[in-house]
Specification:
The chain is of the alpha/beta class. It has twelve helices and eleven strands. The protein has a single domain, classed as Metal-dependent hydrolases (TIM Barrel, Alpha-Beta Barrel). The protein is globular and about 55 Å long.
């Protein structure tokens, strides 16, 4: 996947967004899958579902779809740099201008208010503290881990991390498509040689406050710096393993890149790009990553509604039972299915949101 293909497929930020998901029942499943659904915590580590990325109003009842599929939680997010990005006629996305002073902070405040309304209207829980994901599963109460993709809202001000935490955010992705003063991203020429000093300070603040550190979109050198800086495991929420070396400016990662995240105790989320076409092929990629990085270090990061006008291959959380069934068919034990479905993320979430003082 080259730079243009990556931007076209993955960088569109769903500026138009997908209309929604079909109103249908959850698929029928066998007794073993039904039993596993009672046991596993299901988490999508990266999602823009139901219009979270940019829509003025939710496009469908996210909580209902999660409840139908017995999905526990979704790391739901908007993109901090969306106002300065533009989708081009060829499908690519480019940064078209510098933001006006304070523009991205105001935009992010508006999106945080959108999340407040979503939680209230759809009766979603927010996962805020250790044990909240497990409690949401026990209570069959759909939850979100509120997330922001990219820290451009900071404008260099570390105190804004505490402000978004006060608003419910517990998971922050450091960089996105817009060049960042925190470090280099994969789809632009490197300007910083990895993580910047400010990026290190941002990680320390996340560690102190109790926020998951997400290094998706970061270069290998940036992730190396983050691994040294963070006192909690890293999340790389959405990507896929390249076959061979990744091409320049690709959003795919090498096995080395993935193993670096794993070395921190962290987790790599596998995205559900439309090119995978079927849920079984998506699970094949999850399995390939698990065999390369270890079953303790892989999970789901679908990028639901993040593929522009194309839907993710797993676009409806009511289909979670099919994912569980396919993992068993791929040869994973019930315990391993639990890890891949969300147990790995829940472990990192609990360690991270406890804070390290």
């Amino acid at each position: 996947m080259n730079r243009r293909e990556t931007l076209a497929a993955l960088g569109a930020l769903a500026l138009a967004g997908c209309a929604g998901t079909p109103a249908r029942e959850a698929p029928e499943v066998d007794a073993e899958t039904a039993k596993l659904l009672e046991q596993v915590v299901g988490v999508d580590m990266h999602s823009h579902a139901a219009g979270a990325i940019s829509r003025r109003a939710p496009t469908y009842d996210l909580a209902a779809r999660m409840r139908l599929g017995r999905m526990t939680a979704v790391c739901l997010q908007h993109s901090a740099d969306a106002p300065v990005l533009k989708q081009m006629p060829d499908g690519s996305v480019v940064v078209v201008r510098a933001p006006a002073p304070g523009e991205l902070w105001r935009y992010n405040q508006n999106r945080l208010a959108w999340f407040d309304r979503l939680v209230a209207d759809q009766k979603l829980r927010r996962a805020l503290a250790p044990g909240d994901l497990q409690a949401a599963h026990r209570d069959r109460a759909p939850a979100i881990v509120q997330t922001i993709e990219g820290c451009q809202f900071m404008d260099g001000r570390l105190e804004r991390i505490a402000e978004v935490r006060r608003r419910g955010v517990r998971h922050l992705q450091l960089v996105h498509y817009m060049p960042s003063d925190l470090g280099d991203n994969q789809t632009e020429p490197a300007a910083h040689g990895g993580l910047t000093p400010l990026g290190g300070e941002a990680i320390a603040e996340c560690n102190r406050l109790g926020i998951v550190v997400d290094v998706a979109h970061g270069t290998l050198l940036m992730v190396e710096g983050a691994a040294r800086a963070s006192r909690t495991p890293l999340i790389l929420s959405h990507t896929n393993l390249a076959v061979g070396a990744p091409s320049p400016f690709s959003r795919l990662i090498s096995v080395e890149h993935g193993r670096l995240v794993a070395s921190t105790g962290g987790v790599v989320g596998i995205w559900a790009s439309p090119s995978q076409r079927t849920l079984s092929k998506y699970v094949d990629n999850v399995a390939r990553a698990a065999h390369a990085l270890g079953v303790d270090h892989v999970g789901f990061g679908t990028d639901n509604s993040g593929f522009g006008h194309s839907e993710a291959v797993w676009a409806d959380y009511a289909d979670f039972p099919l994912i569980v069934r396919e993992l068993r068919r791929a040869g994973f034990s019930p315990a391993e299915v639990g890890q891949l479905c969300g147990g790995n993320y829940a472990r990192v979430f609990d360690l991270s949101v406890a804070g390290v003082g």
